[in-house]
Amino acid sequence: MHVLVTGGAGYIGSHTLIELMAEGHDVCVLDNYANATPEVLTRVRTLSNGQIADYRGDVRDAAILDQIMQDFAPDAVVHFAGLKAVSESQQKPLTYYDVNVGGTLALLHAMDRAGCGRIIFSSSATVYGEPDYLPYDEAHPTRPASVYGRTKLMAEQVLTDWAGADPGRSAVILRYFNPVGAHGSARIGEDPQDIPNNLMPYIAQVAVGRRPALTIFGDDYDTPDGTGQRDYIHVVDLARAHVAALDYAGRTPGVRPFNIGTGQSYSVIDMVRAFERACGQTIPTRQAPRRAGDIAAMQADPARAQAELGWRAQHDLDAMTASTWAWQSANPHGYDAG
Ligand code: NAD
Ligand code: UDP
Questions:
Q1: Domain limits, the chain
Q2: pTM for the whole thing?
Q3: C-alpha span between 217 and 290 (Å, rounded)
Q4: Whose CA is nearest to atom 19 of ligand 2?
Q5: pLDDT computed for residue 337 by the predictor
Q6: Closest-CA residue to 190 (of 308, 328, 59)
Q7: CA 43 → CA 40, 229, 276, 300, 326, distances in Å?
């Protein structure tokens, strides 16, 4: 199948390219490198020993989208391109709506013009918001607490209405839990451009000596050790969920959201201990108040993805931390070192 991957040079996109190519798909990337470097695609090509057509441009740009539709004629699109920093979204709401919702609209318009009716969308567990119950299933109410979360929910709504308007269309919405880890080669991984917002890359940068200590946000949550709990998922498992979703979209019209998580959750302290096992060092920590907007715990019910996509996570916590450490220690400054 010909698969256009928007945001394919990013963290999750790059791992997904490898899994798509391993299954024999032809891939094409559109990325503006707002949060990535072209070096990523060089490495993915080497790892996959394959070709990747790539276009540098913005997902909101109709002209470049039409060019790709004409040159590459995708059968399906996997749509990662977007902005993802929760705190930045509160400061720059219009930018986030523009890129995340406007980008999705521009992409669907271009797909319509080209007669492409299949899309896999990167959504987030953050669309659920404060839990009424855990684990979240897909029927849990959605009331995101941030601008970022609302852009994702709004894009889901756009996709739902688009898919509902024509029986030839299929939209699969993947609600990711907390992606971590790196490819087994240690050649690609997560490389935040700034101070990491997320726990795992922050711990990895402490371990490699780039930062003095991890700040633990909150030790008074209603969890066994008082720190926040999340459902961490290995990025290679997440990448494989997209391959399964493409198969599903090929046989199922309409729209369907799926939780993509493991169904297990770990606390901040659990993650620090697991990382210490992986790297053989102590991770210095200091305690700070809760981070605004954080919830105590979240966890996926991945039963629907197992039943309908035939997908389940294969990697455990130690595989997540070991692969993160392998990537970070081999590339202490990420892709910058070349
Ligand atoms: P990422 O920033 O590494 O990847 C996003 C890619 O999109 C980058 O390569 C960036 O350069 C590109 N991009 C950004 N704006 C663009 C634009 N206007 N036009 C073209 N390309 C553009 O992020 P990621 O972690 O790989 O996330 C991928 C997707 O998954 C995002 O939509 C994100 O919101 C979603 N998601 C991520 C997480 C997470 O924790 N990483 C969790 C849930 C959902
Ligand atoms: N966290 C932390 N220190 C950090 C980053 C995160 O203690 O430097 C905590 C955070 O409060 C949450 C968990 O780690 O309980 C996961 O945070 P992350 O930002 O990775 O994911 P999200 O909150 O978006 O689920």
A1: 2-182+233-261+299-314
A2: 0.98
A3: 5
A4: 198
A5: 67
A6: 328
A7: 5, 33, 28, 32, 16
Q: How sure is the predictor about 213, in pLDDT bands with cuts at 50, 70 and 90? A: very high
Cβ atoms of 146 and 309 within 8 Å: the answer is: no
Ligand 1 in contact with 11 (CB < 6 A)? yes
Residue 326 CA: distances (Å) to CA of 143, 204, 207, 295, 335:
37, 10, 11, 30, 14
Q: Torsion-angle region of residue 328: left (phi > 0), alpha (psi -120 to 50) or beta?
A: alpha
Nearest CA to ligand 2 atom 6: 199
For 2-182+233-261+299-314, the fitting CATH number among 1.20.1740.10, 3.40.50.720, 2.30.40.10, 3.40.50.300 is 3.40.50.720
pLDDT digits (tens, 9 = 90+) for 197-212: 999 999 999 999 999 9
The two tokens of residue 162 are 């688009």
Residue-wise pLDDT for 173-196, tens only, equals: 999 999 999 999 999 999 999 899
Does the structure show a pLDDT above 60 at 314? yes
Q: Kindly state the helix (H) or strand (E) to which residue 77 belongs, with its residue range.
A: strand 76-79
293: helix, strand or coil: coil
Of 33, 80, 124, which is best to mutate to test ligand 1, by the most ligand atoms within 8 angstroms of its C-beta? Answer: 80
pLDDT band at 140 (very low <50, low <70, confident <90, very high): very high
DSSP state of 24: T
Active site residues: 148
Structure tokens at 296: 């105590």
CA-wise closest residue to 5 among 25, 24, 30, 26: 30
pLDDT at 256 over 70: yes
Residue 162: name the closest of 127, 100, 118 by CA: 118
What is the widest separation between alpha-carbon atoms in the chain?
A: 56
